[in-house]
């Protein structure tokens, strides 16, 4: 068991303003950044605001930026830093700050509401749903999402352009569209909802320039770009930019593909 | 006089975990305007931590399963102390609740014929747990969350407002359940007037520190457990026993609070992650427990009541994974209380692992690829937090405080609390369902079954009061506001809430932990009195905006109340049963079987903070219905039921 | 770190008034600029090299090897390649280098490729330069408008890339001759061409559009087991799309350079048999 003192710079402030403040704080074996923030609360700054819940990388609450990189504080081990290094912790920089490390993430909840929910198939009673594992695999990967919103934070479309927030759902919710479009029993199409088309026209899929930062930061290791966003772009192409597919679908309207 | 925002709702649900959200969905679908209030962000509730699965006897993997078998397993797991009617309803309704999730978009793992796959778990006779890898809780919470969003989208179409009939107040905390009744003297503690009905809740918003009141005739408590009163726990910061305390303060009693489940397998190293859960699925999927001598010690710890049900040799246990019909299950899959005690004994006997646990090894049973697919978050958790590759080496595990079986005493069918009209409780905060020990997987199904029932009956109750809702008095609001602001007015020499919390956790962990002794529990009660006195002087720095120190100071009241219940009830029950193990009374006593211990608040509340707050009351359980008793063999019942019950 | 010498605060992005007041465009301490810099340098080097070679209109054939930049050779002014990819579709009016006629297709394929898009958006446009590093542009509309909306054409270039890869395969088969056009021989160049064509195919088939067309667009894999299996293979290749993009880019340039060395007489092809 070894213990040392680490240098931390933590942003403190609120919507009115704030600054990076320096702290020296004890670090023990095996600890993560969130442990250090808790130690600061208990010993130096009792009112340091921070969000956290499970401390096991399962709830996605303790999102912050550590040395400029969006991360979960509970999954960032101190052993990944040099002992002499100063570790900078700031709130997520794509969202309005509330206080200290806490930001207003309501953007994400508003976007969640814009994605039409799963449409249950008509005439299939509860308990009568039959789906093959290979057919649910893809959507299951996306449902691993813990909604830490790190992908939403790092995505330059909204991070660097506040004005795009109205038009762009962000990786998390484009992935939700993909999840539903790949759900083997989603009956949106029968109900007159074309998720492939709305991905482009209503959720701003075209803003994505597939630079993969969402995939880079995902703590669940979901391949957001390769498995959700690009396939969704291809599906939008099917609908909007591919006359061959359009013609084919006109000629033989196959009920199931 | 505190000027606070007041809003009118039909049903208020406190807590947005599985039970709370299910209750809210039900109340809203019954046409009630429903508000959900939760301490964290929407979708972050502790339910996301649940890993293994949802127990429901759908019989998809083994057709022999049905509700009767599930009921039997649940009663055995709870050592027959379960509120049997709850166990019955739970076993009967769980499959419907799971299937319903699919119609809301949930994607469970599948069997080859396309149905919901089910896995083995401790104490369940058949593979019964619907699951999604080892992240079932996340799937559950996300599905409920998305169902709520869907209802809000409907309301948006109809009213132009997403929150017209269903609103989530996230990052808000309830500090008092408000009641009507005879007006008390100004400044009297709120919620204490006898005979009152629920009239609303008093809350603060964490972000701004602003107070507000939600007026509603029906309130559902679904706040989860109490684990944050213990040092080593798998629970998150939210688990401060809020609902338990709110119910007590409103005059509703708690039931059998001595039963606290220590999950046998929590991480033990590194220290900062000590207590984090290692899912029981590891054992369900073939993980074995070994001590430092390499011995599978669980074979030495099969208690008499379970002797016929578990394998006697490693060979038989191993065969069971392939051929469960002709072999008995390995003892690693005993109910959690048995496994936790066994691990504790091994460590005490000096046969523990280097960091004070035992070894849990799944790497020898399955190829690495399969482990990563079936236990992805365990693989990830150990890799990231402990540098352990579970596909190649054993994990070190030890018991961790996980769940409280005790809770608010409720009516089995309606989830209504005892003695406070309009107050309902569901999920972990409610007591009775699991008896003295909960089986893995029964928690998620409990949330759904009783969450729905609580929502249903809260809506019906609110219907009955439509037009004449109980009034909220200004005096009550003022008293609640004063209480909540007290930490800002602490005098010189104020106590640090973080220090108090740490001392409380140490006290409960060391003195009322997994193995209990009379002297230690008495000592704990003394220490708790001291902590109460100091907590009354807890003070905080800064202002009301998102101030975690302040939030903790307010939560301390709840943790101290609940801890006193646990310690007092544990001292009273002179036997060992399920989640209550006493070194000085090691045997399960049949005489205690029909005894419930109710914790009631001392009325009126004493002025001295160090004085006792809780009185105990012994009540007799309702006799088990004969047709349910008939599901068991006579020889088995003899081991559990008290002498006089057998002749009834 | 706040030094007081930063440019005045932009009003958007991370410097929006609602966000945490931090002056720096980023707080990353790692060498985040390395990856985009290397990418940009690599792409630039290829562009310079390929422009020179494409316009050179010389030294692209040394029997039995034809440079992949000039294959198929579509104009009359092409050098005669015996049994080789002469396909005079354009006739005599075309006076420029014949490479320009065919390079449009692989260029378009790579230009609209999901990986290369990432690479040049980051490396050349700095949009964004790296994750969580603020980009220098005031406005951003992504691929919603002309011309970038044309990126949606990627699958057509994929279709076009298939015959091109087929012809390069044919060229590779031709390298199993010696310089007197006798079959059954191999030289160092043959080896290079074999590696190159394997990489070209791997890159082409690992394309995201290909993955979608082969199976990604299906809703029920279980009802299309053959396409599901193909989708599975392509998905596995697809995870290496970036590596394949670079490897095939380098190999194609190497093949061309090798032919240049032979054709210009700077080097003699070592023959194995």
Structure description:
The complex is a heterotrimer of chains A (257), B (648) and C (273). Chain A is an alpha+beta fold and 257 residues long. Chain A is 35% helix and 16% strand. Chain A has a five-stranded mixed β-sheet with strand order 2-1-5-3-4. In chain A, strands 6-7 form a two-stranded antiparallel ribbon. In chain A, a hairpin with a 2-residue loop joins strand 1 and strand 2. In chain A, helix 3 runs antiparallel to helix 6, helix 6 packs across helix 9 and helix 7 packs across helix 9. The longest helix of chain A is centred in the C-terminal third of the chain and has 17 residues. The radius of gyration of chain A is 22 Å and the shape is elongated. The termini of chain A are far apart. Chain B has 648 residues and is α/β, with parallel strands linked by helices. In chain B, the strands form five sheets. Chain B has a five-stranded parallel β-sheet. Chain B has a four-stranded mixed β-sheet with strand order 1-10-9-8. In chain B, helix 5 packs across helix 15. About 2% of the residues of chain B have low confidence. The radius of gyration of chain C is 23 Å and the shape is globular. Chain C has one domain. In chain C, helix 1 packs across helix 3 and helix 5 runs antiparallel to helix 8. The longest helix of chain C has 23 residues. Chain C is an all-alpha fold and 273 residues long. Chains in contact: A-B, A-C.
Features:
heterotrimer; B: 648 residues; alpha/beta; FAD/NAD(P)-binding domain; Flavocytochrome C3, Chain A, domain 1; 5-stranded parallel sheet; 4-stranded mixed sheet; C: 273 residues; mainly alpha; two-stranded antiparallel ribbon; 2 strands
Brief summary:
The complex is a heterotrimer of chains A (257), B (648) and C (273). With 257 residues, chain A is α+β, with helices and mostly antiparallel strands.
Q: Which band does the percent of strand residues of chain B land in? A: 5-15%
Q: What are the low-pLDDT stretches of chain A, counting only 5+ consecutive residues below 50? A: none
- With helices defined by DSSP (H or I, 4 residues minimum), what is the helix count of chain B? 18
First-to-last CA distance of chain A: 59 Å
The CATH level-2 architecture of the largest domain in chain A is identified as: Orthogonal Bundle
Shape descriptor of chain A reads elongated
CATH-assigned fold name of the domain at 5-260 and 403-458 in chain B: FAD/NAD(P)-binding domain
Query: How would you state the average pLDDT of chain A, rounded?
Result: 94
| Annotated CATH homologous superfamily of the largest domain in chain A | Alpha-helical ferredoxin
Q: Total number of β-strand segments of chain A?
A: 7
CATH class of the domain at 5-260 and 403-458 in chain B: Alpha Beta
What's the gyration radius of chain B in Å?
Answer: 24 Å
Work out the largest interface and the residue count of each chain.
A-B, 60 and 71 residues
Low-confidence stretches of chain B: 182-193
What's the helical proportion of residues of chain A? 25-40%
Biggest beta sheet attributes of chain A: 5 strands, mixed
Structural class of chain A: alpha+beta
Strand order of the largest sheet of chain B: 7-3-2-11-18
